[in-house]
């Protein structure tokens, strides 16, 4: 995970800041210095659940070694993926066959998002571009003010909402690319390098900002409907005061779940902005939720299961600490996360037990959250490898075990 600063930081100082937070690899020029948080060795595992790779192919060049937010998207039986060098591709979800590939020369950094016959992506250069899902033909592109490191969202058929790295929010006319409205929120001097993806509610859009604020705004004109601080920055140093909401807010019914770095996990009423509960937990990778359960990857790469009604911890899986886990994905009763060595780990949603794992690629990490859809897991690794996995059912002896309580549960 990297840190983004509004002030100019050069040379060794910039490199050091990029590695100060947990899970980052050793910087070669530091010589004999050891990583204070080395990735956990993988535990011996009696796999009670063995994922089956249905197909796997290297479709693009992936992230080009950078921390981007390029994710797989499924629509109408097709997976859409993009890479940092401008490749955009459509792949048949049933067999992995590439249906079309476009070389756009755009430095994609966020997306894609699909709506009907259109798909949209953001770029490192601060552009937003719309394409046809039929063959990848570019329909329009428009200039924004900053890099896009989140997924642009279709708030409805007419409006695309974008959150950029400088904490600006844009409403873009989907038909033409023209700007409808623009909001800018002041960001702290030091922030995580990333932006949360907006969550679309029936009556507005919800997004998390640097500095720990969660806001909801009107899609039509960008008017703020409510604003709440999830975590207030605290501490003596700028690093300790980082309280960003980089994890994408997750909307379940009328409740939005959100996590902050150096701060809290919280549930907020999506209609009023009232904080329903707040628990101390640092998170930036992301979370998944249903009406019955909440799952979070915390900043030490521990995976938590929690009660969505109170935030109380049900279990915690600590065996994967500092393996730079993705946000969790939920497929039935299985929780899946990717890691820095290209593994996908499967956990029992009832108690967090490690059930199985498989390696998608040996050449790159997985930073995009696995996509759980249509009874499968779709995994897009940083080297451009796209895979479809079948998970199967948890064995009866595991599924019937009573959930264990997390020791000193914090959420």
UniProtKB/TrEMBL annotation:
> Which Gene Ontology CC terms are recorded?
cell outer membrane
Compartment list: Cell outer membrane
Q: Which CDD domains match?
A: BamB_YfgL (cd10276)
Q: Print the keywords alphabetically.
A: Cell outer membrane, Lipoprotein, Membrane, Palmitate, Signal
Q: What is its membrane topology?
A: Lipid-anchor
* Single Gene Ontology BP annotation: protein insertion into membrane
> Matching Pfam families, A to Z?
PQQ_2 (PF13360)
**Where in this chain does the record put each Pyrrolo-quinoline quinone repeat domain?**
85-316, 330-390
Report quaternary structure and partners.
Answer: Part of the Bam complex.
What is the designated name of this protein?
A: Outer membrane protein assembly factor BamB
Which species expresses this protein natively?
Answer: Marichromatium gracile
Please spell out the taxonomic lineage of the organism that makes this protein.
Answer: Bacteria, Pseudomonadati, Pseudomonadota, Gammaproteobacteria, Chromatiales
